[in-house]
Amino acid sequence: MFVGSVKNLEEIKVNAPGAVNAFKKTLIGPQEGWEGWVMRLFSLKDGGKSPRHSHPWPHINYILRGQGVLFVDGKETLLGEGSVAYVPAGSLHQFSSTSNEELDFICIVPEEGDK
């Protein structure tokens, strides 16, 4: 069993090409006993965005707060608090904040996606 607080977790700046004001906290993964999967919290601050990229694993996402856009394979979809999204493996995708408020979202990926 694992119980923790997001307030106590280290926030890491995403240093990938194309990332702007993007930060990550690893919430639960193999270290906490969830073998094979990782749940992360991403915060896109001040017009932030994730890199536009693709990879061979899917994303499962839940938007906690803020407003944004999800780009997947040439299509943009508006996101807001309570939105859910599934990004299939191999899809070109990017999350972008579209407001002054942070866009915070949960992202679950297979363990290989969090290396």
From TrEMBL:
<dbReference type="InterPro" id="IPR051610">
    <property type="entry name" value="GPI/OXD"/>
</dbReference>
<keyword id="KW-0479">Metal-binding</keyword>
<protein>
    <submittedName>
        <fullName>Cupin domain protein</fullName>
    </submittedName>
</protein>
<dbReference type="Pfam" id="PF07883">
    <property type="entry name" value="Cupin_2"/>
</dbReference>
<dbReference type="InterPro" id="IPR013096">
    <property type="entry name" value="Cupin_2"/>
</dbReference>
<dbReference type="GO" id="GO:0046872">
    <property type="term" value="F:metal ion binding"/>
</dbReference>
<dbReference type="InterPro" id="IPR011051">
    <property type="entry name" value="RmlC_Cupin_sf"/>
</dbReference>
<dbReference type="InterPro" id="IPR014710">
    <property type="entry name" value="RmlC-like_jellyroll"/>
</dbReference>
<feature type="domain" description="Cupin type-2">
    <location>
        <begin position="41"/>
        <end position="109"/>
    </location>
</feature>
